[in-house]
Amino acid sequence: MEKIIENKDKYLERIYFVGIIILCIKFFTEKSTLITINDMPIALSLAICFFIKLIFQKYTKRELIITIISGIISVLVSAITREYIAVYVFLVIFASKNIDIKKTIKICFWSITVLLSIHAIKYIIDGVIAEIPIIYRNTGEPRYTFYMYHPNIVAGLILWLIAQYSYLKYDNLKIRHFVIFLAIFVVTYLLTLSRTTLIASIVLLILLAISKNMKIAKVITYLSKFIFIIAIVFTIGISYLYRVNRDNFILQKLESALSGRISLLTIAIDEYGVSLFPRNIDLTKDVKWDFGGEAELYLDSIYSRAYIKYGLLYLIWLIYLFTNLNSKNEKKNAIFIILFAIIGVTERYIMYPVIGFPLLFFGDYLWNEKKRDKKIILSQYIRNNFNAGPKAKTDIEKIAESKFGFEVKTMPLTEEICKNKIKRMIQFAKKFKLISSIAKETELAIIQAPFSSKKIMMDKFKNKIVIIHDMEGLRNQNPKELNEEISFYKSCDFVIAHNKTMKTFLINKGIDSNKIYELELFDYLCDGDAKEKNLNHKNPKITYSGNLDKAAFVNQLDSNKMKFELYLYGQKNKEIKNKKIIYKGKCAPDEMPNEIDGDLGLVWDGNFDESDEEESYKNYTKYNNPHKLSCYIAAGMPVIVWKKSAIADFVRENNIGYEISNLYDINKIDFSDYDVKKKNVEKLEQKVRTGYFTQSVLGKILKIMIL
Fold first, then answer.
1. What is the pTM of this model?
2. At 50, is the secondary structure helix, strand, or coil?
3. Pick the CATH number of 375-520+695-705 from 3.40.50.2000, 3.10.129.10, 3.30.470.20, 3.10.25.10
4. CB within 8 A of 509, min separation 6: which ones?
5. Every domain of the chain and the residues it spans
6. 241-286: pLDDT as tens digits
């Protein structure tokens, strides 16, 4: 018993998912002519599953009030109308607290896929050896039912299976997926001749495609808030117009396109009028259709059914529900909400949440009121007073916290953990637990990469911005590691790259260009004032700070060939014999710009020449922005950079330094324009010292995300 209490949430989740599977089976058997199951036991068992979840989950006062009111309305509608869809909607949505929507959708997807596949296989086999049920249009065209009551149901199920798959795989959808989807939709139409589903299928493909454009995505997100009101006004308003002007050409075309649904609602309005409360109206009796002949008065629309039979009270409740489906303003959610609303004009079966999964989005509004505004910035680094490595990350943490209200979450590392396999495993377990806990309460996460637990974050965090500090796979020339990084970037809503070159590289790796933003330059927060720089043209003093282990050139330079002095700052592990290379010691990163001596900053890795340009460190500078560049700018120093490096473009565009191919080229530099370059550096100096570049790029992204 103690174990059950301790793992209560896990067991409640399993009970909920059992209820979802049973509801999928119930929905399918209601529409199937092949499988029949006694409805009472299955309805009772799913009700028990959801009811247990409802009883044992915790509520805030607000949550409890909304749940009770919604439950009363739903039970009232189902009890009076004898149609229990309202109760199923209530149970699935309001029992969803602490339930991962993606898991629910996966279960629905596979349950319906298996059931539909069984029907399709049986139908095809029977079609070869015996007669099968086929419905024919008035024109004589066959419509295959696959042992469902109507071909439209088959088409609708396939559409929503594709929609569920698209939701689950949204961030990784490629052109090949669109081609496959289109082929499936075309084949489905040829077999079922469902025009409304074909139109909805095209709408889905268009929404998926255009949502990749950020400006259009904002429009889609805005539209999703009002699409249900628009659909309700359209459905009901058109019927009233049709009552008074049946001969209107446009109304006649709409009536034909909607297969008589406008005239049916008009007949129902004339026959029964409108009621505030639900009514037990018999809609099975035959009436004379405007389409000709007599047939069942079947209100096959969410909005018409609610308006006539469920009552205005329930319709108002639906509007409340629908307008809060996308409370988080997510473009992905918006796509499927719009699709749901459009199909609701012609089909009411999608009110089953196991098919019309956008109804599950209401849980984000209902259960996450206190968590909705929580934003975190997540980082991982080794703390060291004289190690400049974490400086870029800690600066971005400060900017995100002070300027945008993010909460800082740091995963500290030690060199001991990094070197010890067992301690790394323990650290990983702690990290998994911490990230899982943080993710449950987080609306938006900024993740500073590299971060070792990429797969965890792909699955746990819903809205993510990744700031790239280093691409380990690219730097280490490790394809497997690089592929893991790219997969993680693809799962993020936005990617902040260093520069144009890195952005192009990411685009070529399949990342959507619209979600990649350029940082341009890392900021370097610091107070105080830098030392005055006065260049001695005959004997320039060049400063190099950073990881001296990457500076192979230190031991390669010949003092006899140097017409300059080189000042080194950092951890020295080897003796330096060159008299023109002067070791200046270590300096705390925050104090570095104000303390370092020298007239120009050197940004260089590897050998003194280009002999190693395809090797890891030097090759990597073709893509990244070294943080030392920001340090030099904060110190008011013009810079010297490798002409093939990615930052050479920035240096050239801002006229803040010199480009060389070989360190001995420093001897040939004409420093006559040094003062001009120094003034240009001073224009950037205060920007990097105060966080301008980080604020700028985050401001643009957060404005688009509307969070």
1. 0.61
2. helix
3. 3.40.50.2000
4. 486
5. 1-57+96-132, 375-520+695-705, 541-690
6. 988 888 888 888 888 877 778 888 888 888 888 899 999 887 766 6
